[in-house]
Specification:
single chain; mainly alpha; elongated
């Protein structure tokens, strides 16, 4: 007999993904306050790392949203990626 399995709440991978989104926003908020005082080398390194992190997060988000009905996760990830791009542009053009 095949019994149907009911999932009670989000799985562990989805929780980890949500924590990664929160970590991304905390990192972006920290960078907005500290980017002005950073030396150029540290600013470049931080900008590259945040950009790579957001790139990986966007790719994971699109794979995750395609497989299930988690399309609501796309909006905060895309907003974070755009904010990181704006921070990167601000650092290189106005600092």
């Amino acid at each position: 007999m095949a019994s149907s399995y009911e999932r009670k709440g989000p799985d562990g991978l989805q929780k980890l993904f949500l924590y990664l989104i929160l970590l991304d926003w905390f990192i972006l908020l920290y960078l907005t306050t500290e980017l002005k005082e950073m030396p150029f080398k540290q600013g470049v390194a931080a900008s590259i790392m945040v950009t790579l992190f957001n790139f990986l997060l966007v790719n994971l988000c699109f794979k995750r949203a395609r497989r299930s009905s988690d399309s609501y996760l796309i909006y905060p990830v895309i907003a974070g990626a755009l904010l990181s791009f704006l921070l990167l542009a601000y650092f290189f053009f106005f600092n």
